[in-house]
Amino acid sequence: MDFELTQEQKMYQRAVRDFCEGEVKPYAAQVDETGELRWEAIQKMPMLGLTGLQVPEDYGGAALDTVSASIAVEELGRACGSTALSVSAHNGLCCGPITHWGTTAQKERYLPKLTSGNHLGALALTEPGAGSDLAGGVRTSAVKEGDSWIIDGSKAWITNPKYAPVIITLARTDKEAGTRGFSMILVEPQTDGLTIHPPEKKMGLKGSPTQMLSYDEVRVPLDATLGDEGRGFYQTMQTLDNGRISIGALSVGLAQAAFEEAVKYAKQRRTFGKPIAEHQAIQWMIADAALEIEAARLMVYRAAWLKDQGRDFSRAAAMAKLMASEVAEKVSRNAIQIHGSYGYSREFPVERIYRDQRLMTIGEGTSEIQRLVIARKVLAEM
Ligand SMILES: Cc1cc2nc3c(=O)[nH]c(=O)nc-3n(C[C@H](O)[C@H](O)[C@H](O)COP(=O)(O)OP(=O)(O)OC[C@H]3O[C@@H](n4cnc5c(N)ncnc54)[C@H](O)[C@@H]3O)c2cc1C
What we know:
four-stranded mixed sheet; binds flavin-adenine dinucleotide; Butyryl-CoA Dehydrogenase, subunit A, domain 2; alpha+beta; about 375 residues; Butyryl-CoA Dehydrogenase, subunit A, domain 3; Butyryl-Coa Dehydrogenase, subunit A, domain 1
């Protein structure tokens, strides 16, 4: 058993951290205030492979292992939640499926654009009436007409559509076939009949656009099907397994950022004649945060490592996402507590981090759904 990152992984971590310290973290408050990502930073991301973490090099990606990809997302999360979510969704939810299931023509058409640093991709699964229960709830349909699909329906809460050169859309292609009746279809944003609505007004992650989509007789060629027709639900489950490692990593990054702010503040702020860091109640919060962040990080790395070994990582990914997202919530809550009133002010980053992390127990499968996945696996195994 080896708990050390490789030399290459350490170097990559250092490079991404340096980049984030210079280009991302100083602008996180601005991104939150304006609701706009900082494209000057995103355009520089291809240098470090951040816009194509696991995309083959032939298409402009960095072809990284999953542990390295997790390190990158953690560092982005430590710097800016909005940027990290948009880049994580772009990599895991859009580049990932196209890399795995795309034909050569589809990869050639989309991956170079996606890795260029000028776009961020999107995956549209969720609908106004379907989030946790996609199989039971998805109404968006695609019907064959000649050599085209005609797509009708709507999607909700989708990250990045306004920046996407392609929106992977989960549609029901056979109403009678249950979970075998879904397909993933590649839809370009300028296609007639597709409306991309303005970004939602959210509690946090304000720079990461979350949008609703309406499909009104959207016609795309049949060869825009991503992977085999009828496999869309299984592709979705596989994509979400991978995505959970990424959301776990992002959560660790957010927790780490809140933790660092809390320790810094606790050493400066004085009450009753000494720094608050010397009060035992504050030390306990710091100790718990150190402990829980380390546990969460190890779980994320382990899920990533299992994936890299080609082993079943579904349970490990659900556990890592559940643990890390709930740790981020507790650590950022306590970081505000340690700051007292100042933690409630927009002047200090912990207020933003607290709002940003709140999504992590909801997106890509809620905590309740992670517990359901874990329990099902446990009950099947024991
Ligand atoms: C900022 C943001 C970005 C997002 N980005 C994307 C994206 O890029 N693409 C995309 O497709 N979606 C995206 N989503 C949607 C997100 O993945 C869903 O909101 C999430 O999966 C939960 O679905 P829901 O909101 O419909 O909740 P629901 O499924 O309606 O759940 C409501 C509550 O019921 C609980 N619940 C549901 N079923 C069960 C059960 N069987 N047992 C116990 N409890 C249960 C849930 O845990 C939750 O607490 C995003 C959402 C946000 C807020």
